[in-house]
Amino acid sequence: MESVLSPAASVQTRPRKKRIQAWKWAPYLFISPFLIIFCVFGIFPLLFSATLSFAQWDPAAGFGAIKWIHFDNYKFVLTDSWFWKSLGNTVYIAIASGLPQHLVAIPFAAFLSTVIRGRNAVLGAYFVPFITSSVAIALIFSSLFSKDFGAINAILMSLHNLPGIGIIFPDHKIDWLLDTSLVKPTVSFVVFWRYVGWNTVLYLAAMQTIPEDLYEAATLDGAGTFRKFWHITLPMIRPMMFFAVSLTLINNLQLFEEPFILLGDNGGIGQAGMTTAMYMYRTAFYFSDFGTACAISWVMFIVIAVLSYGNHKLFALAGGKEE
Amino acid sequence: MNKVVRLAVMGALLAAAVPALSATPVTLTVASFPDLDRDIKVAIPLYKKVHPEVEIKLVSRERVDHVNAVTTQLASGTGLPDLIGLEIGFVGRFVASGGLEDLSKAPYNVNQYQNQVTGYSWAQAKGPNGDQYAIPVDIGPGTMFYRKDLMDKAGVTEADLNKSWESYLAAGKKVKAATGAYLVASPVDIKDIYIRSNLKNGEGIYFDKSGKVIVAGNPRFENAFKLAKEAQDAGIAGNIKQWTNDWAAGFQHDQIATQPIGAWLNGHLAHWLAPDEGGKWRATNLPQGAYASWGGSFYAIPAKSTHKAEAYEFLKFLTLNREQQLATFKEMDAFPSLKSAQDDPIMSEPLPYLGGQKAREMWREAAKHIPEIPINKNDGVAEDIINDQLDQVVHQNKDIKAALADAQADIERRARR
Question: pLDDT tens across B374-384, in order?
Answer without folding.
Answer: 888 888 889 98
